[in-house]
Design brief:
mainly alpha; about 550 residues; 3-stranded mixed sheet
């Protein structure tokens, strides 16, 4: 409940619509208060005797305590001063939230209006945070911040009706026509009189003050306590004790293994030149690309529909919540990745969405579409996250919380599982799947290279492009993502390898009694877990299955 009060933006998503008219408080005082509250919560938690808890609640206790300790440990590292980068900030976050809010009645529409009115305060709080970060030398690298000013183009339109800020008020189907006009007039007054001036002032601050004075370095280790900060980021994102060196070496081994498999596929296609030439061919031949955005989206939808029909053979329990495929909004598509998943919510009746990037179609090859769909939609993120949300015996913090290594590890596992399910019939799509796996292996090398081994952006970009069939634009977007989000990209491969390791262990232990549907049920119905606890839980499941089938 305290977390919800601190983050009212999650209100509708988490089934708390009463919080839907406010923003989280980003003032320095509020941040200090939240830090104090975390210590108070820990004191309260420590007063509970674990011995008196049921087995299920012991796990809840353990997970809640770990999340709380992570929150307290994070106080050493002032993330609040890194409040904006090319992937997002207050200017895009507020719009995303407004566009996702429901409009089923006047009360919900009033919530949108109230939030709209409070945007200038939210912007001012973030401006203060960024200014404080400048004073302390704690900023994102200048190289990634340069892409932010163009993100204001869809906000600061000459006609406020053309601004993305006005988009939530265009239809208003729940209201009678006359009332619709009244609401639109109110919205236009606030947008034109308050929000757009605040956004314009914020853009000016970024362009004239913040970005020119931001740091020229790219490594997290360049910041105060940087080495410790990166170690902590690795631990948080992977939920393991692996070091940067161990992850770097793992990445090099995986790159070598996948390269060998890619060579084999290339030979099967009949291509005679080397792998780099093959990658260039895949990137440049027009036959591998759609000519208009709607065809690309239709292609994704067709792939998803075919996978939907195959799911029951591999999954005993499927989520009831549906999902859709749509384009990433224009105002953030240039700096956005190839795709991502936006969770839905069964409580408020909002579907999940696989969001695909339709910007610059010549960088969106057909041969990568299968793997991407399986990762972001099904059997990847949508299946895993929606299933977690629908578990009635899980507390909310487990239904809606998560661990990057679990969710992204599952997404990458889902890509490889699709091969076992009979997909990737086309050799180029199979190569595309290996390309995506290589992408995640390269991340292990590049992220640790940038933040622990002194690699320059140029060195990281060269290594990335030497091993992947990706355009200059896609490659730069990815490298800049690792610069702005240290450690996050490590979670995918580390998580996937753990899922594969656990499955192999279960198959070996259970032999002919191994049932992939039961296995996936056991993996997913406990919700997202740290990898250490996931392994412990699945070991217990394996032992229970051995007893069930009297396996010595």
């Amino acid at each position: 409940d305290e977390t919800m009060r601190e983050n009212p933006e999650w209100g509708y998503q988490m089934g708390h619509p009463e919080l839907g008219d406010d923003w989280s408080d980003d003032s320095l005082q509020a941040i200090q208060n939240r830090q104090k509250k975390a210590h108070c919560l820990k004191k309260a938690l420590d007063s509970i005797s674990k011995r008196q808890l049921s087995q299920k609640n012991k796990l809840n206790y353990e997970l809640f305590r770990e999340a709380l300790l992570t929150r307290i440990q994070a106080q050493k590292f002032p993330y609040e001063y890194l409040a904006i980068n090319q992937l997002g900030g207050v200017h895009t976050d507020v719009i995303d939230t407004l566009l996702e809010m429901p409009q089923n009645n006047r009360a919900e529409i009033n919530h949108i209006l109230k939030r709209l009115e409070k945007i200038p305060l939210k912007i001012e709080q973030n401006k203060i945070l960024l200014s404080k970060g400048l004073e302390l030398g704690i900023t994102e690298p200048q190289v990634v911040l340069k892409k932010i000013p163009e993100q204001f183009d869809d906000i600061l339109k000459k006609n406020p009706k053309d601004s993305v800020l006005f988009k939530p008020f265009k239809e208003l189907k729940a209201l009678p026509p006359q009332e619709q006009e009244t609401v639109r007039e109110q919205a236009l007054q606030v947008i034109q009189g308050k929000v757009m001036p605040a956004m314009a002032d914020f853009k000016k601050f970024l362009v004239t003050t913040y970005i020119p004075q931001a740091r020229k370095t790219t490594s997290l280790e360049a910041l105060p306590q940087g080495k410790e900060w990166y170690r902590w980021a690795i631990q948080k994102q992977t939920t393991t004790d692996m070091t940067a060196d161990q992850i770097h070496e793992l990445g090099l081994r995986e790159v070598a293994r996948i390269t060998k498999e890619m060579e084999e596929i290339k030979v099967q296609t009949g291509f005679k030149k080397d792998l780099k030439a093959f990658n260039d061919y895949l990137m440049k031949d027009p036959k591998f690309y759609y000519q208009n955005p709607e065809d690309l989206l239709k292609g994704y939808r067709n792939i998803a529909k075919q996978m939907d029909a195959a799911l029951p053979q591999y999954f005993k329990t499927l989520p009831r919540l549906t999902y859709g495929v749509r384009a990433i909004p224009a105002y953030k598509e240039k700096a956005a990745p190839t795709a991502y998943y936006t969770p839905g919510n069964p409580v408020i009746g909002r579907a999940g969405y696989f969001e695909a990037n339709t910007y610059d179609l010549k960088t969106r090859p057909k041969w990568g579409m299968e793997a991407l769909t399986y990762h972001e939609a099904v059997p990847g993120h949508h299946l895993q996250i929606a299933l977690s949300q629908e578990q009635k015996d899980l507390p909310d913090f487990r239904k809606y919380g998560g661990y990057t290594a679990f969710s992204e590890g599952w997404g990458l596992y889902a890509e490889s599982l699709a091969k076992d399910m009979g997909f990737y019939k086309d050799l180029y799509s199979r190569y595309g799947q290996l390309t995506y796996e290589m992408w995640r292996a390269v991340r292990l090398v590049v992220d640790t290279g940038l933040h622990a081994k002194g690699w320059s952006r140029e060195k990281a970009l060269k290594y990335f492009m030497d091993h992947l069939a990706k355009s200059q634009l896609e490659s730069e977007v990815e490298i800049d993502r690792y610069i702005a989000w240290p450690g996050q990209a490590l979670a995918y491969k580390v998580g996937q390898l753990k899922f594969l390791e656990i499955r192999q262990k279960a198959k070996k232990a259970l032999g002919e009694h191994f049932d992939i549907r039961e296995f996936h049920d056991a993996l997913l119905r406990g919700g997202a877990l740290p990898l250490t606890l996931l392994e412990k839980r699945m070991n217990q499941w394996i032992q229970a299955q051995k007893r069930k089938y009297s396996i010595e």
